[in-house]
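Data follows
____________
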Amino acid sequence: MDLIADNWKKYPLLLIGELATALPEALPFPASGIGAPGSLPINDFYVLVSVSELELAPVLARLETAGLSPAQILPLLRPETQFAHPKLAFLGIFDLIDGESPEEFRARLLGKLEAQRQKMLCMALQEAADRGISRALQENELGAALDACRVAHALACTYSLSPMAHARVLKLCLERGPAQSLPWPADLATERMIVEASLLLLHCFQRGQSFREQLKEKSGALPFRARTDLLHHLESCLGQLLGGKSHVA
């Protein structure tokens, strides 16, 4: 249970509607507040929607109008509910199970949130395809952009970025182009740093250069904590993606 509690910190969660099960990790939020001036920046949250069937479609429409990705939205439904949506595959449909204990509900919801975070990459790639990225880039450029996006996704997960920050990183990575040749500025934002590091990694692999040396040169102006955190997260990602930390050497 301690691991579950720690993992909840990665997923800022709002609750729209009522739940029979207490969910201390979720911040209650009224449907009337969606898009209201001065309201909570809901784009930075995942949103569990627990409303009646009649209310569901209007609430989802308001959330999407407010800028939320379908991957951020988790409608809570009974298994027999008939539900249609143009981006159904990206929504986090969460079945309501009678007789489930609060602990089982929370653990299952956490697993769904982890799955939805992985869907952020699927959404980014689908949206890039819809924008015509395959027509805009040559085959080798397209492959590099997609590889860099996957690295950026892994980094965004290790940094536990909010959903909207995560989505921005992936979009930037797909649109950014080749890695910068100049050293990074000292005030480089975390999102931009993730993008540049991902592009630099692919650049080094393509040219057989030492990523650690290039990273040291590019990040020299960054604060010490930012540099060490970046290296730690990169090594964690590479351990998962490539099989070991030695790839950063």
